[in-house]
Write a structure and sequence with these properties.
The chain is mainly beta. Helix content is 10%, strand content 34%. The protein has eight helices and 42 strands. Strands 2, 30, 32, 33, 34, 38 and 41 form a seven-stranded antiparallel sheet that branches. The protein has a seven-stranded mixed sheet with strand order 14-13-12-27-28-29-22, with no helix packed on it. The longest helix has 18 residues. It is elongated and about 120 Å long. 47% of the residues are buried. About 5% of the residues have low confidence.
Length: 659
C-alpha cells in the first residue's frame, strides 16, 4: 500500500500574505475644556441642530466641531470612516465624543455645543454627525491627508457679512469665494480666518449667512477674532479653538465673564506652528493685558513648541502694515511698535492679518524697520536672513466692503511712521506690494520643505456677486486679463539657514513589506512510500514535508503563524481518516523569529485527532526580527491493519496567518 500526500490542489506553490484585514475605529479621548462650560442636562432630545462648523484641532490628528442646539440636552459627535457608512447608516461601533456647552446669551438664544474628535488616521475619509440617538444632524464628511510633508492652506480676509447692508449679497460673495478657492485647491487642508466674520457681533442672521457654506463643515476652519466679532459672545459660542488661553489678559476689558469674546490660542499642523492672537486687546488701559500679554504669550509658545515645527505663522486681525483706511490708526501704530522686535527675535516667518480690506505684502521687516534697504518692490523671491518677517494683509473674501489705498505722509520710514517708500513713493515704506481693485480675493499659502509660497488670488471680478460694487462702488478689473483664479501677487519666502549649509532629507513611508511562504520543491507531492506492518496489528509510514520557506520583510514586526491540516486519505471508494497522521515540526534554517510548533501524535496512538484538525507548524511573536526561515516536519502515519490494500492520497492544506 502506497500513501501519497499533496499540497492543496489547484493552489500555486508560491504564497504571499500582505496581512490580515481588520476593521479599525477612532480612539476615544475626551478632552475637557475649561471656561465655565457645563455638561448639558439629560433629556429626551428633540433639539434643532444648527450652525455646525468643523474646526481645527491641536494637530492634524484632531478636529473640533461646534454647533447650536435649540434644547439643553446631552449631545455628542458620532464619527466613522466614510467607507463604513452604508446608506447613511453609521456602524454600530462608530466612535462617539461627548459634547460640552452651555446656554447662549439672550440675543443668540438656545445653547451651544462642541466636542473634539481625536485619533484620526491619515489619508482617510471620515463622516460625522452631531446630536443624539434618534435625533442626528445631517452627516458631513472630511478627509485627512498625509500627516507629514507639504500642504496648502487658504487665508480668508474679512467676510464681514452684513457690512454692505445686504446680508444676502454678502453671503453670495462669501459662498462664491469658498466655491472658487476650494475647487481650485481641492487638497487645501485648512481655512484660516483673518477675522470679522460678521458685521454685528451678536447678529445671528449674519452668523447663519456666514456659516451657510458647506465648506465650513468639510475643511477645518481656524477662526480669528476681529473687531466686529469681539463685542459679544457669539464668536465664542460658534467656535471652539485648541489650546486656548481665555485668561483676562487676552480680553480687551480684562473680563472673560463679560459679554465679549477673547483669548489667544495655538496649534501645530504638520510643519507649521500657528499662533492666533486677539489683537482687540492692545492697551492695558482697556483693562486687559494689552500687547505685552500677547508678546509674552507668543514667546512662551515658541519657546515651548517652536522646535516641533519648521515654520512659525502668526495670525491676528489688525494689520500693522496695511495701505488703506486703517494704515494710520493710532492702535495700529501702537502695535507696530509693540510687536515687530519680538517677532523678529523669535524667528517668526509670516504674519497674516486682516482689518484693512485691501491686499498688501510687506518688505521683510526686522525689528520694526525694512530688513534690507535694497529689497525691490514686488520681488518674486525673498530671503529673510535672521529676523526678517513677512507681513500679509488680506482683502475682502466676500466683497461686502473694500477700503481704498491711502497716501503716505511725512511721519517717517520706520517704527510707527507712515512715510513713503523711497523706491516707490506712492506706497508706504513698509509695503512691497499694495493692491485694491474692489474685487474679492483670497491668499493661498503653500507650505514646502524649502520655502513658503504666498499668493493673492482673485476669486471674483467686477461682476456679481460683488456686493459693494453692486451697490454702486467703483471697480477696476479687466475680466479678460484678470479673470477669476488669476494671481494678483506671488512671493516665495526662503528660510534663513545660518552661516553653514543646511542639509535636508525627506523620508517617505517605508514599503510595508510582505509576509509569504514558498514550498521548497518542484511540486507539492510528498511520497510516504509503502507502509510497513508492525506487531501484526497496524501499518506505519514516515517521511518529511517538503520544506517551507517563510519570508517576512514587514516593518510592523507583527506576529505570524503557519499551520496545516490533512484531509482523509482516499483510494476510489476506500478511505481512512487523516487523524492517523502526526508530525514533529522543526526549524531547518533559523530566522524571522520562527519557533517550531508542538509535536502531534498519530490518533492511532492516543485516539486523538492527529493532523485532521489545524496544527501549528511554526510561529513568531510580535517584535521578531525580519528575515527568512525554513520550516520542516517529520511525518508519522499509523493505521490499523484493517485498512484495505490500495494507493491512498490526501491533501495537506497549509495556512499562513499574519496581522
Amino acid at each position: 500500500m502506497r500513501t501519497k500526500l499533496f499540497a492543496p490542489a489547484g493552489r500555486p506553490v508560491r504564497r504571499r500574505v500582505a496581512g490580515t484585514a481588520v476593521a479599525a475605529s477612532v480612539g476615544l479621548i475626551l478632552a475637557l475644556g475649561g471656561g465655565g462650560l457645563t455638561n448639558p442636562a439629560v433629556a429626551a432630545d428633540s433639539a434643532t441642530l444648527t450652525g455646525i462648523v468643523l474646526g481645527v484641532g491641536a494637530d492634524e490628528t484632531q478636529r473640533t466641531v461646534s454647533w447650536y442646539s435649540s434644547a439643553d440636552t446631552t449631545q455628542k459627535i458620532q464619527v466613522a470612516p466614510t467607507a463604513l457608512v452604508t446608506a447613511g447608516e453609521f456602524p454600530a461601533d462608530a466612535a462617539t465624543f461627548d459634547a460640552l456647552g452651555g446656554a447662549n446669551i439672550a440675543t443668540s438664544g438656545g445653547y451651544n455645543r462642541h466636542a473634539t474628535i481625536t485619533g484620526l488616521k491619515e489619508n482617510t475619509a471620515y463622516s460625522y454627525r452631531v446630536g443624539s440617538e434618534g435625533n442626528w444632524s445631517t452627516a458631513y464628511a472630511f478627509r485627512t491627508q498625509d500627516f507629514e510633508g507639504e500642504y496648502d492652506f487658504l487665508f480668508l480676509g474679512d467676510p464681514q457679512i452684513g457690512s454692505s447692508g445686504d446680508t444676502a449679497k454678502d453671503q453670495a460673495g462669501w459662498q462664491d469665494t469658498l466655491d472658487v478657492a476650494t475647487k481650485a485647491n481641492k487638497d487645501a487642508e485648512l481655512l484660516v480666518s483673518g477675522g470679522d466674520q460678521v458685521e454685528s457681533a451678536n447678529n445671528e442672521s449674519q452668523w447663519n449667512a456666514f456659516l451657510a457654506p458647506d465648506q465650513l463643515r468639510q475643511v477645518p476652519f481656524a477662526a480669528t477674532i476681529g473687531n466686529h466679532d469681539v463685542g459679544g459672545k457669539a464668536y465664542e459660542q460658534h467656535f471652539s479653538t485648541p489650546n486656548t488661553d481665555r485668561s483676562g489678559a487676552y480680553y480687551s476689558n480684562g473680563n472673560p465673564a463679560s459679554n465679549t469674546s477673547g483669548g489667544d490660542y495655538w496649534y501645530i499642523y504638520k510643519d507649521v506652528l500657528f499662533i492666533d492672537l486677539n489683537s482687540n486687546s492692545y492697551a492695558t488701559s482697556q483693562g486687559g493685558g494689552g500687547d505685552e500679554a500677547h508678546t509674552k504669550y507668543v514667546t512662551d509658545v515658541i519657546n515651548q513648541h517652536g522646535s516641533e515645527a519648521k515654520w512659525k505663522v502668526l495670525v491676528y486681525h489688525h494689520s500693522i502694515y496695511s495701505p488703506a483706511s486703517h494704515a494710520k490708526d493710532g492702535d495700529n501704530k501702537t502695535r507696530r511698535v509693540d510687536f515687530p522686535t519680538t517677532f523678529s527675535k523669535l524667528g517668526v516667518d509670516i504674519v497674516l492679518q486682516g482689518h484693512d480690506h485691501s491686499y498688501s505684502r510687506s518688505y521683510l521687516i526686522k525689528n520694526g524697520e525694512k530688513a534690507d534697504k535694497d529689497e525691490q518692490p514686488g520681488a518674486a523671491d525673498v530671503y529673510p536672513g535672521p529676523g526678517g518677517v513677512l507681513y500679509v494683509t488680506a482683502n475682502s473674501a466676500s466683497g461686502s466692503k473694500y477700503y481704498d489705498i491711502t497716501k503716505p505722509d511725512s511721519s517717517g520710514t520706520s517704527g510707527a511712521g507712515n512715510g513713503a517708500d523711497p523706491l516707490n513713493p506712492d506706497s508706504y515704506w513698509y509695503n512691497s506690494v499694495q493692491n485694491q481693485e474692489h474685487v474679492r480675493s483670497y491668499v493661498k499659502v503653500q507650505v514646502r520643505d524649502e520655502k513658503l509660497v504666498v499668493e493673492n488670488i482673485r476669486s471674483g471680478t467686477c461682476a456679481a456677486p460683488n456686493s459693494e460694487v453692486e451697490h454702486g462702488d467703483w471697480c477696476n478689473n479687466t475680466t479678460t486679463d484678470q479673470p477669476v483664479g488669476s494671481v494678483v501677487d506671488k512671493v516665495s519666502v526662503h528660510p534663513y539657514n545660518g552661516d553653514g549649509q543646511s542639509l535636508q532629507v525627506n523620508v517617505p513611508n517605508a514599503a510595508p513589506g510582505e509576509f509569504g511562504w514558498t514550498i521548497d520543491g518542484y511540486n507539492g507531492l510528498v511520497d510516504l512510500g509503502t507502509a510497513k506492518e508492525e506487531n501484526g496489528d497496524h501499518f506505519t509510514a514516515s517521511g518529511k514535508i517538503n520544506p517551507i520557506l517563510v519570508t517576512d520583510s514587514r516593518r510592523s514586526l507583527s506576529p505570524w503563524s503557519v499551520s496545516a491540516n490533512v484531509s482523509d486519505f482516499k483510494d476510489a471508494d476506500k478511505t481512512f481518516p487523516g487523524s492517523y497522521l502526526g508530525w514533529s515540526p522543526y526549524i531547518l534554517d533559523q530566522g524571522a523569529g520562527a519557533k517550531a510548533g508542538a509535536s502531534v501524535a498519530s490518533g492511532y496512538d492516543d485516539q486523538g485527532k492527529g493532523l485532521s484538525i489545524s496544527r501549528g507548524l511554526s510561529s513568531a511573536d510580535q517584535g521578531h526580527a525580519r528575515g527568512k526561515a525554513k520550516l520542516g516536519a517529520d511525518l508519522d502515519l499509523k493505521i490499523p491493519d484493517s485498512v484495505q490494500k490500495g494507493g491512498y492520497r490526501a491533501t495537506l492544506t497549509i495556512t499562513a496567518l499574519s496581522s
